[in-house]
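Q: Second attempt. The first request was missing the SMILES, so the protein and magnesium ion are both included now.
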Amino acid sequence: MSDLLRLPAEQTYASELAALTSGDDVPKPEGWKLSPQAVLTYLLGGKAADGTIVSPKYVGNRRLMETAVATLATDRALLLLGVPGTAKSWVSEHLAAAIMNDSTMLIQCTAGTDENQVRYGWNYAQLLAKGPSEEALVPTPLYRAMQQGKLCRLEELTRMGSDVQDTLITVLSEKMMPIAELNSAVYARRGFNVIATANNRDKGVNELSAALKRRFNVVVLPLPDDMDEEAAIVARRVDEMAGGLSLPVPRNVREEITRVLTIFRELRAGATADGKTTLKTPSGSLSTAEAIATVVGGLSQAMWFNDGRLTARELAANMVGAIVKDPVQDKAVLEEYLETVLKKRRDFAAYYAALGEAL
Ligand SMILES: Nc1ncnc2c1ncn2[C@@H]1O[C@H](COP(=O)(O)OP(=O)(O)OP(=O)(O)O)[C@@H](O)[C@H]1O
Ligand SMILES: [Mg+2]
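A: Got both inputs this time. The predicted holo structure:
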């Protein structure tokens, strides 16, 4: 096993990708390593031509993934939108891994991102010695993706300033980037495209300009609406993550996941599952990703401090962390939920006690 915490998707799933590539003899968009059908099998799981089992990466609506993949084969870029923890970054990485076998051309956009980090920068020693020249130019991931005909990933696009965002307009519509200092330009090779992610919950973001929006096809990733589906996602990811961290997974994990998710989903929806009681909702998004993190945190606590036994106590401390983002309001929301809902449920007695204690 490698001593790296995490490898890029194309390395982790190299054998699946190789199996899909070898049996993939249908036409592909130019520059693509896999056909759109094979990319979809990689994302949603299935079987490669040689019988290799391909694990599902995204669990959810097939149509959404079809639209995402089809968009990347056109001249429009893809924007994955959704609340935090709906697998936007995850899908973006797997798309780049499957289509280009390279998910590493990534720009993390922040309020401090400037044009030099999006287009190209300069090596100042070289710039002083030789003046503006090819050697003094420092390419960004976007620049390299254009040169090599690959996919560039822009994480949290709306976090960077609108003026910087707009440098993408020429790149996306003309498929070229002028380099005024050298009186030249870089032209994108076939295959080049952009996958951006943005979440629609954050405050302090910069809305995309209408001009830029038009160059993106937006795919909104929803929270799973079905309990069983969400439980399956959490169970699968918890298994994978626990494996990576060498944490044993006790037998009762599936039951506890169902209980944690019941609580998360009721608080998220602002109503009990039977629809009889309305509830106040906490300020956080209580997404699937947070349920995954809660259970993995619980497993770690169980392994190191409770002889590997996973109980409500180990999970409760992590649940409070996910639910109470605002120490005053969210605490009151959880307290009310405990007293009006959880107290009356016999199979949640341990959670009622443990959450009350952890709060
Ligand atoms: N529908 C889903 N199918 C598979 N995995 C999912 C799904 N929803 C969430 N996950 C899991 O949630 C985790 C977090 O997802 P990710 O980091 O991609 O979220 P995000 O939408 O980018 O959030 P943020 O806006 O905070 O960046 C991933 O490990 C992913 O496996
Ligand atoms: Mg993300």
